[in-house]
Write a structure and sequence with these properties.
Largest sheet: 7 strands, mixed
Number of helices: 0
Radius of gyration: 13 Å
Shape: globular
Length: 124
Amino acid sequence: QVQLVESGGGLVQAGGSLRLSCAASGRTFSSYAMGWFRQAAGKEREFVSAISWSGGNTNYADSVKGRFTISRDNAKNTVYLQMNSLKPEDTAVYSCAAARGAYGLGLKRAYDYWGQGTQVTVSS
């Protein structure tokens, strides 16, 4: 069992930055691939970014590529999402998720555990 707790959300002006953190319980964190998803009001949850268990492979949704950076610190059981040049359309609840597998990380069904999420609001 893995428990995930996100933090770092908040209100920021367009063009600003935030860094989200996702702290995981358990001693097997380093064996999970991790992902970030977001869900805006009235919309489906969508993929944002993912990182392999080692941190050696990352991928991003086209909408955030070049602005967001995912990273992880396995010694701290934490995955991060650095968000720069934020836009009002980035406003959403951001959730992290853990996957036992290494494939299809852009898909919600690849993930086994989910956090509750943290709100990010970008004002124009």
